Every structure is written in structure tokens, then in C-alpha cells.
Amino acid sequence: MQRCIHLLLIGSLFAFSFSCKPDDPNKISADEVLKKAQETMEISTKFVLQEKEAFEKNSEARLKTIRGDIEDMKAALSTANETASEIQAQLNAIEKKEAELEAWLEKMETDDALQGAQQGFHAAMAELEKAKENLEKRLK
Predict the structure, then answer these.
(1) Do 135 and 87 contact (CB within 8 A), yes or no?
(2) pTM of this prediction?
(3) 2, 22, 130, 136: which has the fewest Cβ within 10 Å?
(4) Domain ranges, residue 28
């Protein structure tokens, strides 16, 4: 882009210098044309550099924001994995207590000491219900 601007400026300056009449009091010398062309190239070069710097600065800021978002998502995923592991552990504990209740129920069906079996069953049932409620609260 910068090269195109330079070529366009040089071409227009040459065209301007050849269009002037030799006896014209407003005639511009070749040195003045070259000086103006050089000034124009310097200005256009500064402009291009400023645009480049602004683009780079903006791009770096956007990239930094995206990197931060990625790190936040990684942290959230890590927390979600830890939470999922904790929930799975609680679910496993509930399933274990459910199995204990099943064993108590079978014992009650075959045991003559019904009262002892009922007490154990009720204690295990209370633990199961409490664990289930705690897990349900976490999942909501």
C-alpha cells in the first residue's frame, strides 16, 4: 500500500513538473519537485507506521483479552471437573447406603430379632435420605 502511494505521488509530481511552461514564473525546479516528493514520502511513511502501530496495539489487547478468557474457561473447567468428582463420590456413597438398606431389609425378612433390624434399617434410611437431600441441594 505504501509503495502504491509513493508511486502515485512521484508520478503526479513528474506530470506536474512537465506541464509547466519554461517561461512560467511559477515554474518549479526539479530539485523542488524531488524535495516535495521526499517530504510526501516521509509523511506517508509516518502515517503507515502509525497505522501499523495502532493495529498492532489493538490486536495485542484483543489477544490478551482472549488469553484471559481462555484461562478463565480452563479454571471453570477445572472447578467443574472437581465438582463432578465430588458429586460422583457423593452419589457413590448414596448408592452404598442404598445397598446397606437393601441388606437391612433382607435381614428384617429373615431375622427373628425384628426390633434390632428395624432400628438399623431406620438409621440407614435416615443417612440415605440426608445424603440424597444434600446432593439434591448441590445439584440445584
Answers:
(1) yes
(2) 0.43
(3) 22
(4) 2-139
Integer-rounded Cα Rg, in Å, for the chain is 42
DSSP state of 52: H
| Mean of all residue pLDDT scores within the chain | 76
Number of compact structural domains in the chain: 1
Buried b (16+ CB within 10 A) or exposed e, 42-60: eebeeeeeeeeeeeeeeee
DSSP for residue 140:
-
What Cα–Cα distance (Å) separates residue 138 from each residue in 58, 84, 133?
42, 11, 9
Q: Which cell is 47 given?
A: 502515517
Cβ atoms of 104 and 74 closer than 8 Å: no
